[in-house]
Amino acid sequence: MYTLTNSHGVEVRAMNYGGIIVSIRVADRKGQFADIVLGHETLEGYIPNPPYLGAIVGRYANRIANGKFALDGKTYTLPQNDGTNSLHGGLKGFDKVVWDGAPLKGKTGVAFTYLSKDGEEGYPGNFKVKVTYMLTDTNELILDYEATTDKATPINVSQHSYFNLAGEGNGDILNHEVMLNADRFTPVDQKLIPTGELRAVKGTPLDFTKPTRVGSRIDDNYDQLTLAHGYDHNWIINRKGADKGLVLAARVYEPTTGRVLEVSTTQPAVQFYTGNFLDGTVTGKHGHVYQRRYGLCLETQHYPDSPNHPDFPSTILKPGETFRQKTVFKFSAK
Ligand code: GLA
Fold first, then answer.
1. What per-residue confidence (pLDDT) applies to 196?
2. Phi, psi at residue 179, to the nearest 5°?
């Protein structure tokens, strides 16, 4: 377990099992600290971890249809662990392996590295991945992702923290206000696989271009919400032209505590998931029972099932290339 603290008393704890962010303690508008991520007090609590609480997800975060993709003329088969889909890297994804942890030199942070061997969970290539968590004195948690491979492979890595800015276990997230910097999303079919359409959010309950209460439209009679039982979609982050720099993807505000989370990223999209599958079967920290929609995830990433959608931005990493992405979680209160 690595504990990162900054000059404002913000504290982030992360462990080498699954690269899991175990807790994030930040102040509210009155200076009261609370832990704002769902999780467990013990390692055993995370084994198993069906909701992927706090974990790094990969080699391919999100879904690959029918657990199959073709690359360079060869078809690869992945474990189907979500109906017929392969979800979050398969049966033993990056969330369930032990990473090597090392403190960052001269910085408040930790680097987790992992070698995913050729053929692991069906993916090609010896894949070396490094995820660093760094905490700054401006209350930013900076996530840096870096990876290389010796055979071409699809890659999509993300972070699966469930936030509740009122404090973990403190009710559902329906009163949180969310802004997503995205004019379009990728509609899904019954299996939550993108249909290939890029749909405008305008005029739909998925329009979060202006700050909106999560609960105000979540149960609207709209095909995408019915299929996903709430929000569980990939929003395409607005960017100028081919810019691949850090942009604001999301802002979340919790009115009773004033806590704010801003998410910026170099990634093309963000999966906004409202914990629709939490159902009270997981008891987390302090005996808190995590009921439906007790946390929300903002998983910055590529579009789901990209290896089967040649028209989506490519997720293929080739030998000799280095994959690099950055996501920043910034905490404040107002
Ligand atoms: C992702 C998916 C959800 C769900 C969770 C884990 O966010 O998009 O559908 O599988 O992971 O429960």
1. 98
2. -120, 130
